[in-house]
Amino acid sequence: MVGSTVVNDVNETVGKIDDLIVTPSEKVPFAVLSVGGFLGIGTKYVVVPFSSLQIKDKQMVLPGATKDSLKALPEFKYNTSE
């Protein structure tokens, strides 16, 4: 799952699953997607409900997504203070 490329319904690559978030209070897990950038430079992380992803033909699909629509989502930042 983590590391999988995410495509939209017209098979365009829109991101990659960087991490999964599961919290005790939420019943729906979330997927952290890395979008944009090249070789890790300029990459933005966004969160989408895991339930919005579908598996089709052994690919992770986020219907209706585009790189621009994902880049427009609020940026997710990992807590690095530990």
UniProtKB/TrEMBL annotation:
Keywords assigned: Membrane, Transmembrane, Transmembrane helix
Keyword S-adenosyl-L-methionine annotated: no
Annotated TM spans: 28-50
InterPro entries: PRC-brl_dom, PRC_barrel-like_sf
UniProt KW Membrane keyword: yes
Domain PRC-barrel: 2-63
SUPFAM superfamilies linked: PRC-barrel domain
A Pfam family that the UniProt record links to this protein: PRC
Record protein name field: PRC-barrel domain-containing protein
Organism from which the protein derives: Labrys miyagiensis
Lineage: Bacteria, Pseudomonadati, Pseudomonadota, Alphaproteobacteria, Hyphomicrobiales
